[in-house]
Amino acid sequence: MTELYDDLPEMDAFDTAPVRLTVDLQALAENWQDLARRSGKARAGAVVKADAYGLGIEDCGLTLYEAGARDFFVAVPSEGATLRAYAPEARIFVLSGIWPGQERLFLENDLVPVLASEEQLAFWMSLIAEIGPYPCALQVDTGFNRLGIRPEEAIALAHDVSRPASFDPVLILSHLHSADTPNDPQNRAQLDSFQQVTQAFEGIDRSLSASAGIFLGSDYHFDLTRPGIALYGGEATGGIKNPMRPVAKAEARILQLRNAPAGETVSYGGAHRLTRDSRLAIASVGYADGYLRSLSGAGIPLRQAVPQGAVGFFNGFRLPVVGRITMDLTVFDASDLPEAALRAGDYIELFGPNLALDEVARAGGSIGYELLTSIGLRHERRYIGEEASL
Ligand SMILES: *Cc1c(COP(=O)(O)O)cnc(C)c1O
How many CB atoms lie within 10 A of CB 90? Predict the structure, then answer.
């Protein structure tokens, strides 16, 4: 039996992957350096939640650490525990705060909880009474109505003489809800509110801006910025050309090419009827890979998706998605390509250097963030750096 197998060629997981993702770590490092420069006097942190936006927290975390990042943000403590090995001297903030039962995970990995509610604060005060001083961060909600204590609660806490001496906040942060729209007056309102709160916490580092906020100018930078999507090459700010380098390229393998005459239909529901004799490329990617069903070329009524759906890219051509995207397969229209240009086994680019992540996401009524974090599941990943680029 084994002798039989010995004759078979070694399989290269990436070169034969149904769907694959190439991550350019050099571009990631350069994007961080660029955002650090744009952050002016503030330090630039790095947000690596959701497995570094789907691109891999280990490799991306190490790259950002080596580029100079020392303040990392994750959503949940398990992400922080994974990151710790790759960012040994960094401060790692956990945005969802701490819950009873998670104490050991935090202490063993030296994670800093971002406290965001009165209940969490009460739990924290009782914990530090037991364990002694331990750093924490405080999230203040200045208008998002998501996580955070209210500004007046924060100010009361700052002046509360009965709070334990071991209470040691090292960062006070808030989050802007409309920073991607630079002229929105709500940005200024949140800024004013944040300034009032931070004045009550003199000497403690302040952080207001994620990627988009960095582009709002120095008033918004404070001591530390928290870029996420822009590190990974996504669009942070509307109305300007995206200045970041693309970091990720997603590709799917073509499994079959088929000819179909005008009048036939394609995919579930027969939702797309061909208006010309067509050459169809069947790609090995579907919504189970995070290629959102709303990117379908037909048959998916959605609030903001564009009716014609997404396109793929191959060799200078843009190939429209035809009919509904299915769990594991997607049909692209290859009719405009020269007959032998695209063959079974070739890879079609879903997004990357030739097809902007955000353009594809928009076609499905979505945003780059969602597409990027969804696409990681079944993809084979390859990391490239200095010697190669996307
Ligand atoms: C996700 C997140 C960020 C990063 O946001 P981007 O828009 O991806 O730069 C920063 N701060 C908080 C609180 C977040 O939840």
Answer: 20
Among 60, 64, 73, the mutation site with the greatest number of ligand 1 atoms within 8 A of its Cβ is 73
pLDDT band for position 372 (cuts 50, 70, 90): very high
Is the predicted pLDDT of residue 331 greater than 80, yes or no?
yes
User: 171 with 204: CB under 8 angstroms?
Assistant: yes
Annotated catalytic, 249? Answer: no
Closest atom, ligand 1, to C-alpha of 180: 7
To the question of pTM greater than 0.90 for the whole model, the response is yes
pLDDT tens for 111-169 read 999 999 999 999 999 999 999 999 999 999 999 999 999 999 999 999 998 888 889 89
Given the residues 49, 134, 291, 369, the one annotated as active site: 49
Backbone torsions φ then ψ of 284, nearest 5 degrees: -85, 60
Phi, psi of 55 (to 5 degrees): -100, 0
Does the annotation list 378 as a binding residue?
no
CATH topology of domain 39-232: TIM Barrel (3.20.20)
Q: Is the CB of 226 under 6 A from ligand 1?
A: yes
Residue ranges of the chain that CATH labels 2.40.37.10: 248-388
Spatial strand order in the sheet of 167-173: 46-47, 71-74, 91-94, 111-115, 134-139, 167-173, 205-207
CATH topology of domain 248-388: Lyase, Ornithine Decarboxylase; Chain A, domain 1 (2.40.37)
Q: Which of 53, 268, 369, 383 is catalytic?
A: 268
Dig out the tokens for 228 from the structure.
């996420």
Rounded to an integer, the average pLDDT of 380-387 is: 88
327 is an annotated ligand-binding site residue: yes
